[in-house]
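FIELD: query
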Amino acid sequence: METTKENQLENLKERILAALEQVIDPELNIDIVNLGLIYGVEVSEEKHCVIKLTLTTMGCPLADTITDDIMKAIQSIPEISSTEVKLVWYPAWDTSKMSRYARIALGIR
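FIELD: result
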């Protein structure tokens, strides 16, 4: 029984990440998942979702825009009743956190 619950939770997290891939960083024009900006996704028993997010730079003027886009993306998942975005700065983001796709798209080796 527990395995089924764990499988359902993993499936839900995968769907959350898929929804977050629709959130595009307006400056780099690449989604926040492939940029490596998502540091964690947690879902509680009450279906509260916490997204741990970092940004490419501190003081990024687009933080509110990206947060709003995250909230809209998660609304498409009916199992989630509420969402919270936590901005974290540790560990600091760098290009090593980007996916191969993002590095190729931005011309970074």
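FIELD: remark
The helical segments are 2-20, 63-74, 100-106.
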